[in-house]
């Protein structure tokens, strides 16, 4: 079960995206959020990884 949230950020001349993914911990079974700021082209790769 994954939740995708993508927000567009714009700083000076670069366009960035903040991506938040919910990941289940293998040890405890609890869900945690993983955040990353990247270019919009890399967002699909971020969500496809486990």
Give a structural overview.
- With 50 residues, the chain is mainly beta.
- It has a domain of 32 residues.
- A three-stranded antiparallel sheet has the order 1-2-3.
- The protein is elongated, with a radius of gyration of 12 Å.
- The termini are close together.
Key attributes of the depicted protein:
50 residues; mainly beta; three-stranded antiparallel beta sheet; 3 strands; 54% strand
What is the tally of helical segments? 1
Terminal CA distance reads 11 Å
User: What pattern of helices and strands is seen along the backbone?
Assistant: EEEH
Alpha-beta content class: mainly beta
Strand order in the largest sheet: 1-2-3
Low-confidence stretches: none
Number of strands: 3
What percent of residues adopt helix (DSSP H or I)?
Answer: 10-25%
Q: Determine Rg (CA atoms, Å).
A: 12 Å
Strand content: over 45%
Chain-averaged pLDDT: 80
Shape: elongated
Main sheet record: 3 strands, antiparallel
Q: What is the multimeric organization of the chains shown? A: single chain
């Amino acid at each position: 079960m994954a939740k995708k949230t993508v927000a567009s950020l714009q700083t000076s001349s670069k366009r960035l995206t903040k991506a938040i993914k919910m990941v289940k911990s293998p040890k405890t079974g609890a869900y945690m959020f993983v955040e990353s700021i990247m270019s919009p082209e890399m967002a699909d790769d971020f969500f496809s990884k486990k």
